[in-house]
Amino acid sequence: MMERRSLHKEIAESVRRQLLAGLLVAGDTLPTVREMAENWACAPGTVQTAYRELAEQGLIESRPGRGTRIKMSLGDAAGGDTPMRRAMLVHNTETFLLDALTSGYTTEEVEFALHTALDRWRSILGTPNLAPETVLRFVGSHDPAVSYIASRFAEIDLRTAMTVDFVGSLGGLMALAEGKAHIAGCHLWDPETKSYNIPYIQKLLPGRKVALIRVGERNLGLVTAQGNPKGIKTLADLARPDVRFVNRQRGSGTRVWLDTQLSELGISTDDIPGYEDEVATHGEVAQAIAEGRADAGIAIATVANNYDLGFRSLTWEPYDLVLTSDIWEMPQVQGLIKWLALPGTQYAIHDLGGYRTMQTGQVVKIRT
Fold first, then answer.
1. What pTM, to 2 d.p., does this model score?
2. How far is Cα 214 from Cα 196, in angstroms, rounded to an integer?
3. What pLDDT digit, counting tens, does each position of 213-223 carry?
4. Is the dihedral of CA 18, 23, 25, 27 positive or negative?
5. Which of 223, 320, 236, 311 is nearest to 271 (CA)?
């Protein structure tokens, strides 16, 4: 049974390849089911399954007395949101996936790489225009759990999608204050009150009713090369001349926390080689270290684990979703809150590594 499913996929892929190569164009007739079954030495039902898949993608159509014809050619996919355009993307992705798997990577490693790359490009592309009404817009601090939530959002509300824009905690709160986001992601440490998020919310959203939804607590620490060959153990080691540091961007919660710690320890940022080298996500910190461009950085345990790097815990910090009262009653927001509180969601976020999820889904309402 497994062979039959694999073969119908091969038949469908062969048709898509011919379309991409321009060997088939709109109006061309495909072999009959019987002819295709003879060509592939398989049962007619296998071909019918392949043709059904291609028809569902909008690439072919079957009509009584006229056979099965190509519905859309490569040229038709040049612009707009067409089935062929989507099929081309699937084809290119499958080519990448095949190359990665034959090179020895696991599907879990490939999935992590895709999520990491997407997170980076979201930050590079910057803040787009306001999303349509069918999209729930997130702007704020980078977190792999947010990427997970966005990828599963269809499970929460089939009518909507969730877009993600990683610009840092301060940028997220500012976008929320300006009406450019539905939800902000935040983990900002306030040294005066020795607390997270609320002092900044009170400053940036005065006179507003605000709710905080806990995603989880994250293990934040020093990320080093595998085996920590330079023996980096504390923040003071970042000032060593033989240690190259990679930093997070200004406005990120990690950068705010780090600068506070350095100030309290009396460590000048001028003494840290690489302090001015900034990246926008935790994944980029880990990638710089994995590629040998830096010796250390501050990031969460999740990315250190995914890159198989060294990690020394420095603190556990809460990560919250922040939204205002005018957004609170949106059905998709209520769905998100209920979904976060489910044990299955808590387990899934915990399994990303480096998260405590006992408080995941808990809501705190404040009036600023």
1. 0.69
2. 12
3. 999 999 999 99
4. negative
5. 236
Distance CA 225, CA 235 (A): 16
Give the whole-angstrom CA distance, residue 244 versus residue 272.
8
Give the three-class secondary structure for 232: coil
Here the tokens at position 10 are 């091969």
Which amino acid makes up residue 351? D
pLDDT digits (tens, 9 = 90+) for 155-210: 777 667 788 888 899 999 999 999 989 999 999 999 999 999 999 999 999 999 99
Give how far the C-alpha of residue 33 lies from the chain's centroid of Cα atoms, to the nearest Å: 41
**Measuring CA to CA, which residue among 333, 316, 315 is closest to residue 324?**
333
Cα–Cα nearest to 93, from 107, 82, 79? 107
Q: Which amino acid would we find at residue 223?
A: V
Tokens 């935790």 label which residue?
Answer: 282
* 200: phi then psi, degrees, rounded to nearest 5: -70, -40
Tokens in use for 51? 């043709």
